[in-house]
Amino acid sequence: MKKKYWYDYLWIVTILYFTLGFFNILFAWLGMIMFILPLLFAIIGGNKLYCNKYCDRSRLFELLGGRFSLNMAPPPFLRSTWFRYGFLAFFLTMFGLMVAYTYQVFTGAPLRETVTLLWTFKLGWSTAGVSSVTPWVAQYAYGFYGVMLTSLVLGLATRVLYRPRSWCVYCPMGTMTQGICKIKHRNDAK
Amino acid sequence: MAQKNKASVGKQCVACGACIRKCPIGAITVYKGMYAVVDVPKCRGCGACAKHCSANVISIIEVNNEEKILV
Question: A112: helix, coil or strand?
Fold first, then answer.
């Protein structure tokens, strides 16, 4: 049996993150760590160590393994460049719109206490603690929690059909960091 | 000439590292965040990486024992 390391237990972070966010949306801000760290690894280190070792989401999917899954091989389009970069562009656009609305709240627009799931479904999410902060801080938390929840739902849905970590194939962060590494090491690219 | 099974990584590797975690002997690594590479002499061709490859780009191929292949 393989020796277990501390990072093998990082799946706890995912569960903790979504639980804390459920009770107080402001904890959604902690998700920025999962957003910035992979980029730092790629930009400074020129590697995907975050995906390879420290990604809490992938640890959770691995922990769930093939349970409640058809465990099929993912379809070829999922790993195609057009789909991966297309999904990244779509994800970044939606993220940009979320940031844009946060800016509108900063300039006086009303706070929307909803978490948007799969860019469509608006879930009412009235939690404690929101009134204690500037509205734009809360708005960003609602938006970011929606982004994180959407990626979790997509990841879980994909793993029901395909292999445990099939989300990693089109994960926008993974695509982005691999792209950065390819640019950084362009002479070694395949 | 003796034949051996070895893992071979396809061009559309997403460098997620699922294979690294599944290889029982540490014969596969991700090269500079771009794609997975197999340490051919070390690889036993057990297929654990291919079975768990998220993108389904790893295949098990037969190579001559003395043959050097670049993957």
Answer: coil
Above 80 in pLDDT, residue A106?
yes
Place of tokens 């501390």: A6
A1 near B CB under 8 A: no
Domain count, chain A: 1
Tell if the CB–CB gap between B14 and A53 is shorter than 8 Å: no
Tell me how close the Cα of B61 comes to any Cα of chain A, in angstroms: 18
- Tell whether the model's pLDDT for residue A81 goes beyond 90: yes
Top-level class of domain B3-64: alpha beta
Across chain A, mean pLDDT equals 91
* DSSP string covering A58-94: HHHHHHHTTTT---BPPPGGGGSHHHHHHHHHHHHHH
Write out chain A residues lying below 8 Å of B12, CB-based: 76, 79-81
Residue A1 lies in a domain: no
Looking at this predicted complex, what is its ipTM?
0.85
Task: Locate the domains of chain B by residue range.
Answer: 3-64
Identify the domain containing residue A50 by its residue range.
6-188
